[in-house]
Amino acid sequence: MQLNYHFDEIAAISRQGKDIIFDMKVNDGNENNELIYHSIKLKNVYDDSVNNTLSHCYTLITQDGFLLTLDENTKDKILYKFSYLEKYNKSKLIIKDFYINEIENLIVTAFNSQSRNIKLLPEFEYSGFLSGTNLRLGIHGNNQNNNYFGIDSNSYIKLSQGNDSYQIKTFLTKNKNERVNISLSDYIDKLTDDNVSHFFLTDISGFDLTFKNGLLSHRYLPDDYLTLFFDPTLLNKIVDTNVTIRLIDKDNVVFTLPTKESQQHLLTPMTDLNFTISAGNDVLMIPESLTLNKEALSTYSLDSPYSLLRSILMTQQKPHNQSIEHLPILELMAGDDIVVNHNKCSSVIDGGEGDDHIVVNHGHHILIAGEGNDNLSAGGGNDLLISESGLDYLSGGSGSNIYIVNKRYGEVTVYDEGENSQLFISGLSEQDELISSQVGDDWQYRTEDGQFILTLKTKENQTNSSVTIIKTENTLSMQSLASIIQEMAQFNEQQLTTMQGSEFIPSLTWSPLPLVTKHL
């Protein structure tokens, strides 16, 4: 029901039997500037004159955009939840600043040239919701459990006692340096460990955020995304009193801020990720939202204790080029390990010793079988799969893939679902001759002594494989592999600049073929 009144013209609300009465005070511009009182009766709101069972639920909209909804759950009094929606504002004054102080029951609204203070009636309670274009919100809660929704950039929050929830509207911003400021309530000097502030981050992963000097920002593109600024005084109170701040991201993963003692800047998930690289049998399930740069590998215990590959990469790294810091490099150890990487970002995964299973689903990757009998399985990207020893199974998925299989004593099986993939058989001497034959639907390549066997499986309903076989005497050295990884790191860094929130879209332009051809 549309009211021909403004929100601050509601003077009182009362109940008469089954009805609710709104008393309005209006200044109509008369000569004596006297207030005129009107009365509005909402008929048959309740079933009877005694109980609070609703018969009709009236939703009211004021001229200045306030939406009033009767709370059906309140048993002892009339209670209207109010919201502000700019699209319902029919007045000439569009609100630009909206400040709610729940301790003093006060609303302050600001326009282009003036402000208005509204003292809330006892029958009113803020719903926590408002909507408007470039609307700056100020929140000062009380000691109750409150919920606030649609918090936009340039808003500010004063944390109070109770278990409160704050929903950030979006982390995607139109302008640089947009932020939400967070500080402590003016009415208390401390919070206790019973007070919990929940921040809901609706369109970003907590794994993509970093916290440093009071700023919670995107770890790759801080200027393009909203930041949350925590006042230093508040941070000191958090440390002193163990106040809980929880951040719930788009995937409903719950994080806490890093502690000073941790020396880390990434958020800490409350649920153990069960990540560890050890000499035992490790199982690593890497979620899609977790992009593992060097800092993340260290924070989440995925750094190898000793890395020959990374040490070579550091010696090759050019000054002021930090791209290798952003490329996930996982080097497994001696156990029979299982790694499933759901992330779309490029990565390098080395199986190390042991019989390992490595699976990637999206993006472009370098997978290294290492020692042992390994199973490498790639997805839709253009991947490089390397097998140097053991009885290995390589599956490149549906991209344009490159395989490097070193001749040795043993058998390797390759199954490729892509197009225009190429397989390099390395380490062949001038005397080595590969004998090819068809075995069932598959093709088999073996040395004359039968010590090395390569089986190339064909796709279903095909008689010939689309994979091109290339024979070479050369082998891929660690230095050459490091050079290829450096190139992938630069490509990966470019991909990171195109992220939208936590959405990572792999580029189709990457191909390891020119790099492999250069080094073999």
UniProtKB/TrEMBL annotation:
GO molecular function: calcium ion binding
Pfam families per record: HemolysinCabind
Recorded superkingdom: Bacteria
InterPro entries according to UniProt: Hemolysn_Ca-bd, Serralysin-like_metalloprot_C
Keywords (A to Z) from UniProt: Calcium
Entry-linked SUPFAM superfamilies: beta-Roll (SSF51120)
Official protein name in the record: Calcium-binding protein
Organism: Proteus columbae
